[in-house]
Predict the structure.
Amino acid sequence: MSRVRIGATRIDLNEIIKRGVLAVFSVLAVLLPILKVSSLGESDDVVLGDFPLLGGAAYLLPVAFLCGLATVVIDGMRAHARFIDMAGLIVAFVAVLRGAYALGSSSAPGAAAGSMQRLDQLAQVSLSYGSIALLLVLLGAIWQLRKSWRS
């Protein structure tokens, strides 16, 4: 392990890199489109911040992982690293579930008949490239939480 001492604080560079990558992927998961909806020659991208998916709660994803990055540098936050990792995992899990629900409800006929946000029956919904970042965040959050509970 490579550790750097800045004043009285010891910083683990490997931990900064791991948490930094998770923070970058979480920002990409919010910015990039998750679903692609195409209907009658028109296509639209759905991002996590759209109201039918997570709305404003989507921005909790990068906040949780940026706070996780801060736990490496700030001594007072190190005691809370496990709970910050758990919060990031919960938000990532909810985002994946909500995206899967939107994908499933659009493909199942009559599944969301009572919903106000029901997609057109002729619309085709598919995963977009932002879903890769979201799945990487979910897998990284699971791995990071497992690692932080062991130590």
